[in-house]
Automatic annotation (TrEMBL):
Pathway the protein acts in: Carbohydrate biosynthesis; dTDP-L-rhamnose biosynthesis
Name of this chain's protein: dTDP-4-dehydrorhamnose reductase
MF-aspect GO terms: dTDP-4-dehydrorhamnose reductase activity
Species per Swiss-Prot/TrEMBL record: Haloplasma contractile SSD-17B
GO biological process, one term: dTDP-rhamnose biosynthetic process
Domain named RmlD-like substrate binding: residues: 66-203
Function: Catalyzes the reduction of dTDP-6-deoxy-L-lyxo-4-hexulose to yield dTDP-L-rhamnose.
SUPFAM superfamilies associated with the record: NAD(P)-binding Rossmann-fold domains (SSF51735)
Family, similarity comment: Belongs to the dTDP-4-dehydrorhamnose reductase family.
EC number: 1.1.1.133
Keywords (A to Z) from UniProt: NADP, Oxidoreductase
One Pfam family named in its UniProt record: RmlD_sub_bind
């Protein structure tokens, strides 16, 4: 089995690639210096030469590139997966969200992901679209929640974490496992991946805190909304279990 993966210089793709490799999937990174994403001929030749079983579009790419790759995969019987985001929903609204919830984001990033989703659906009826939330890693150095918090402490000396905000989030390892499971056990379609069942951002930050980090965490109340996504078809370890806060009660 082979998989082309975009975004290998990012946060999610390297963890997904590592998980797939452990399950005997050969990973072929999409190197944009070799295969420019604005060159349709180069993209077509790359995909059809490699003939992967899967193409996971995890990195950023223009909507036009996304549409083209999704179409080529459909025409060549290659399973295509696109990672979208909870950010397709407006921050001015509040969830929780399900697969029936209508995306309504109007910011640049949310509109970009919404457009990609729409274009994919138009050209590849067999595509997998997986919306994910804020990713949690084990350390700083990449675009994940821990990195954000470490930098916030460096800047301000403390973290003010809202006790009124329920974010969609998952640990990178759990996200990778879930993407693998979706591709290998589920039919194509839209899926929502979120590990947060009932914890506020304040709870989660305290769960990530430890004696080594020793963050100064203050309780806040902004933002006040529910960004959680729920999908009964998805089995993923809860963030409370991952962080060992199953039995703590939010105040």
């Amino acid at each position: 089995m082979k998989a082309i993966i975009t975004g290998m210089n990012g946060t999610v793709a390297p963890v997904v690639a590592s998980y797939f490799e452990k399950h005997d999937v050969e990973i072929i990174p999409w190197d944009r210096s070799v295969v420019p994403t604005d060159n349709e001929q180069a993209m077509y030749e790359f995909i059809t030469r490699v003939k992967p079983d899967f193409l996971l579009h995890i990195g950023m790419g223009s909507p036009e590139m996304t549409e083209f790759v999704a179409r080529i995969c459909f025409q060549n019987n290659i399973t295509f997966l696109f990672t979208s985001t909870v950010s397709v929903f407006s921050e001015s609204g509040s969830g929780p969200y399900t697969v029936e919830s209508e995306p309504n984001a109007e910011d640049d990033y949310g509109l970009y992901k919404r457009k990609c989703e729409r274009l994919i659906k138009e050209v590849n009826k067999d595509a997998y679209i997986v919306r994910i939330g804020w990713q949690i890693g084990d350390q700083a150095g990449s675009n994940n929640m821990v990195d954000f918090l470490v930098n916030l402490v460096k800047e301000k000396g403390y973290i003010e974490a809202s006790n009124k905000w329920y974010p969609s989030c998952s640990h990178l390892i759990d996200t990778a496992k879930t993407i693998y499971d979706i591709l290998n056990t589920k039919d194509s379609g839209l899926y929502l991946v979120n590990s947060n069942q009932n914890r506020t951002f304040y709870d989660i930050v305290n769960g990530l805190n430890n004696s080594e980090r020793n963050w100064n965490v203050k309780k806040g109340s902004n933002p006040s909304r529910d960004d959680r996504m729920f999908d009964d078809r998805i089995q993923i370890q809860s963030i409370a279990t991952r962080l060992g806060i199953d039995h703590e009660v939010n105040e």
